[in-house]
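Here is one chain, start to finish.
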Amino acid sequence: MIKSILCQAVLCHSLMFFYTGSYTRKGAPAVNPHGKGIGCFQFDSEKGTITNVNYTSLRNVSYLTVSSDSKYLYAVEELAETEYPKVYAYQIKKDGNLNLLNSQKLIGDYACHLSIVDGRLMVANYGTGNALSFPILKDGSLGSCEQIIQHKGVGPNKERQEAAHAHMVYPFDHNKVFVVDLGLDKATAYVHDASNQWIASKAEDISVDPGAGSRHMTMDKTQTYAYLLGELDGHIYVVKKEKDGFQRVQKISFVPRSYHGDFGGAAIRIHPNGKYLYATCRGANTIAVFSINENTGILSLVHTISSFGTSPRDFNIDPSGKWLIVANQDSDSLVVFKIDSDNGMLEKHKSFHVDTPVNISWK
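Its structure:
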């Protein structure tokens, strides 16, 4: 009896939920978009296996984010404004199912990222180069858009940087956000002030090389070091926070030396233990693994491994730190990798069929 109870407790502890976004219709930046919306999956952290629970129908769900208390999930539709895209708020039930709270219209084209910052939901619109701020109400639902942050400018790549392209909103400190812009080669900093407005904090802006195409970023736990991924030039830019702003300390490639095509850098994340950093390259279909020097923040390449699929648009590391799951958008697969705790290296474990997955968020 006691043994049975203990086994059930271990089983419950090893099971957790995660959610995927997916491209669902023609016009999305995918070879053959045919996803089913928001996917809810159960993951067994002991066996490294995935089981689909259900799908919530939504159009071109490019990105998701879950609240820190795991009670709410927010999702955006990546569509032109003429197709009336929305941002959605859901309550997460104990069984992982989603209960719709409400939605708000998105002002701009092709929303591609969102984050929770200082009690607000921030959304990045790639097509129109702006970021939107929505208040999060007490019940987890969203108020209407209260501010639009508009970027302007161009970069040297005439095809990809003909205008501003906000690609990520990354929170830092308790009331600040970076809007990472591919078109401007910059992560522009904003602070939420006493008047409930986002105002520029130019001294904290981070620039990458012209034409690098800053796409995503991450920071260490102390927020002393930031790591920006260049989608167009295949490099990671490491900067350190100083009294007068962020100063570059390293530029390092995440692309295999033998690869000579378009880079297509995608996602970048740090392991929960803070020792390793991972980055995906959609051109080479690879995941690069780096160790992080705890004293200097400098990266050293550990190894590069195939994503065992096509176009690894996103990945995420499970809360236990034992597994990494990558979303291979154009080969319809989620691939589970086992993480070596001694050096951060990856080893393929299992592959699961999922239609056009583009994002992974843990409950």
